Amino acid sequence: MTGKMEYLTFFNGHKMPILGLGTAHALGDDIEKAIDAALEIGYRHIDTARRYNNEAQIGRTLKKWLDSGKIKREDLFIVTKLPLTGNRAECVEKHLKQSLHDLQLDYVDLYLIHHPVGFQDVDPKDNGEEMLLDMNTDHVSLWKAMEGQVDAGRARSIGLSNFNARQVKRVWQSARIKPANLQVELHVYFQQSQLRAFCRALDITVCGYIPLGAPGVRPPGRAAITVDTSKQPKRDQMTNPVVSQIAQKHRKTNAQVLLRYVVQLGVAAIPKSTNPDRLRQNFDVFDFELSAEDMEALEQLDKGSAGRQVRAFIPEMANHPEYPFNAHY
Ligand code: A2P
User: Fold this and answer.
1) Which DSSP state fits 54?
2) Which of 26, 36, 40, 98 has the greatest number of C-beta atoms within 10 Å?
3) What pLDDT digit, counting tens, does each position of 219-260 carry?
């Protein structure tokens, strides 16, 4: 890698590396090896969540690196998220403490509310694998508990994920400590231009998940994102001819062009990979620049909300009063 990492600066002065490692659906041995390889390559921003069931494995690898002295805690930027079953004020501290225990850390750099929809705090194993909606989710009281985590030193910054503009605004208006970051689906087919402009006006940075458009096959089971494949937009960003042409011109891969585009929009990107070659490739996007012409051609690939791939983790979520994705943005 010849280029230099770029950073997003939060309103509170904390800096987030603009390229991080996504870890959704990365489990077991795979994730430990991936974190090891990623740290070796130079990744310092790692994105996980209670929901991904991999914090303990990530924590083991981080501890190994921190104990060895090869890396210092202040060089890392670790993000995790409150699970959907924890979307009540009284649950926040318990869940963050558990995440910190598993990650073997004293604090996270960024703690996000994973989703505006809340579920009851019942283990699906005790309930015939059913997850029950909690229809009383209240973001304002929930946010106060999030602020308490900053006060207690367990989180340096706090933010939101999958919230729409109206929901972000409500939290922002009530906040004593403002949200520093919004993490949402964002890629060349779903560019979120209105939501980005809205966040810019509130000084909230944006991080895009599935920046490559999630070309991989989802694992089966309840952890998978449930999609109606007949209504699913094409996930062919990686083979799109416009992307290929720009990639050839810069002697880069299509994945690198897709990631560079997100970064050049001023948005953080967290591509997931457990393959060392692809990890290296995805990190190597700081030694070239897309021209204004390239940026314009890529902007034209936006399909607006028709390009959205992630809707409901489970179909019942769409019945919740805080289901976010019916709004225009
Ligand atoms: P793998 O982990 O085997 O590398 P997204 O972050 O948009 O969800 O994309 C992640 C998916 O894309 C994973 O299935 C990952 O598989 C694959 N992937 C990650 N980086 C690359 C790349 N540079 N080229 C091709 N596929 C990639």
Assistant:
1) -
2) 26
3) 434 444 545 555 667 889 999 999 999 999 999 999 999 999
Q: What is the pTM of this model?
A: 0.95
Q: Please name the helix (run of DSSP H) or strand (run of DSSP E) that holds residue 282, with its range, or none.
A: helix 276-283
Under 8 Å between Cβ of 46 and 59: no
Residues 266-300 have pLDDT tens digits of 999 999 999 999 999 999 999 999 999 999 999 99
Ligand 1-lining residues (CB < 6 angstroms): 22, 210-216, 255, 271-275, 278, 281-282
Q: Which of 278, 282, 283 to mutate to test the pocket of ligand 1 (most atoms within 8 A of CB)?
A: 278
Q: Which atom of ligand 1 is nearest to the CA of 212?
A: 7
pLDDT tens, residue by residue, 13-34: 999 999 999 999 887 788 999 9
Tell the burial category of 112 from Cβ atoms under 10 Å away from its Cβ (0-12, 13-18, 19+): buried
In the chain, the amino acid numbered 281 is Q
What residues have CB less than 8 Å from 178, skipping those under 6 apart? 11, 172, 202, 203, 204
Of all atoms in ligand 1, which is nearest to the CA of residue 210?
7
Q: Give 170 Cα–ligand 1 centroid separation in angstroms.
A: 34
The pLDDT value recorded for residue 312 is: 87
Q: What is the rounded average pLDDT of the residues 9-13?
A: 98
Give residue 282 CA to ligand 1 midpoint distance, Å: 9
270 closest CA partner among 14, 3, 25, 10: 25
272 Cα nearest atom in ligand 1? 6
